[in-house]
From TrEMBL:
One Pfam entry name: RNase_T
Domain of life: Bacteria
Region span, Disordered: 209-235
GO molecular function: exonuclease activity
PANTHER family noted in UniProt: DNA POLYMERASE III SUBUNIT EPSILON, PROTEIN NEN2
Taxonomic lineage of the native organism: Bacteria, Bacillati, Actinomycetota, Actinomycetes, Kitasatosporales
Keyword field contains Nuclease: yes
Coiled-coil region(s): none
InterPro entries, per database record: BRCT_dom, BRCT_dom_sf, DnaQ, Ribonucl_H, RNaseH-like_sf, RNaseH_sf
UniProt source species: Streptomyces coffeae
Protein name, per record: DEDDh family exonuclease
Amino acid sequence: MLEDPTEAAPQLAPPSSWPPGYPQGYAVVDVETTGLARDDRIVSAAVYRLDARGTVQDHWYTLVNPQRDPGPVWIHGLTRETLADAPLFPEIAGELAERLDGRVLVAHNAVFDWSMLAREYARAKSAAPVRQRLCTIALSKELGLPLPNHKLESLAAHYGVVQERAHHALDDARVLAEAFRPSLHLAATAGLRLPLLACKPLTEWSDGPSGGIGHQRSYRPTSWRPSRKRPACPYPNPGRYEPGGALVQGMRVAFSGDTSVDRELLEDRAVDAGLHVATSVSRLTSLLVTNDPESATSKTTKARSFGTPVIDEAAFMQLLQDVTPAPPTNR
């Protein structure tokens, strides 16, 4: 675990007047995990504490032994050997809680970081002292920032923040803290209502007997935004997804059940990649994404009857990284 004085990045002057209803402090958080599923574990965590106007106060970082395979080492770089002597989550839960207490949790795709923390605390028979969270993706949308996509690197580039170690929790938290400050100042200048969401801790957690899947109670991520009509997909439907192959722009993708990533953000990523997000499953649906393929929802039932391919959220997120461009149309 590390706690060092922070070298302050160049800061823009905050607006002279400040909205009275804004939070009194923030905890900018990033966690790296063994995966995206509900039974995945945290392998590292970082917190930058900011004051009411976004100035960095201090930072903290720790590795966490997940007591299982570390997952995508090629992403976070943390091997089983590296994590072997790291503390277990219950051993750092108290210190982490002190850094979150009384602050708004800020993260890029905050529902994911909050969900992972809430599950870890529930496993430790405790609860994180977090009452509200703020997603910097949602804030960027509210500010109308001209970003090409929702990636952290795009937000960082917009504000001239240099990334040094992408997918390292401490550096990702630093980058986000430096990018959040000017966004906060823009919001304050405009008197914008911050997109704050309530955080509801899990009341209990059990690792179920079926495949070790965790079962949660009294918690369901929600979006603060109302549903909205999306623009029509500009590409023709190339047909069904071929298992083992790549996604192709224009494919019709439907989602069913709970997701680790906020549903609206997941759909936004699909649209940004050139896919058509379908609200129901039909014979034209290219792919159904669900973390519970055996459930008896109308979408999974129709997918089985139509022979529509079904994959889970983690596989879909992987496929989104390399979507094949739509073939040119003859005019």
